[in-house]
What we know:
25% of the residues lie in helices and 32% in strands. By secondary structure, the protein is of the alpha+beta class. The longest helix has 45 residues, at 2-46.
Amino acid sequence: IMATKAGRKGLSAVVATVLLMLITIVAVIIISQVLVPFVKTSLNTASECVNYWEYFVFDDSFGYSCYDDEENNGITLTASGEERQNNSIVGFDLVFNKGVESQKSSARSGAPIGELRMLDGSITNIKIPKRGETLSYVYYNNGIAYESVDVYPVIKSRDGERICEKSDSIKLKRCDSGVSLTN
């Protein structure tokens, strides 16, 4: 009788070990089916913007990064990315800041002008600078002279559009005499 009880104890330990291994294998399969695709998708979307961190750069050499007496706000942007990136850029978002206040303005290629317009006034649709190109814009608002502006590249994404991290920032000053932000 003693031998049979000892054999049963040994058998139950083997059964318990096999069951734990099966549970572990099933858990690994379930996790790999759910977690791996989730992580893969997250990494792909998170890395979409890596090459666009400094795509748009403010250029103050023309003197248009300023606000005028009517408190229109001007900026000049240069696209400094690579040629292959031109096809992915769909526009940019500008965030105008004054103290704790901020105002966002979106610019998309070919969109009709709104509060953000091309400085030269000859174009009725917004144009987005391509690599090596510099364009000036005026933000017509409700008479607020903003202190600074941030620019965020917007790219084509698998999910439509993706707004990337801030590419550049500039402090605005009062326009020099002779600089006009009106058409």
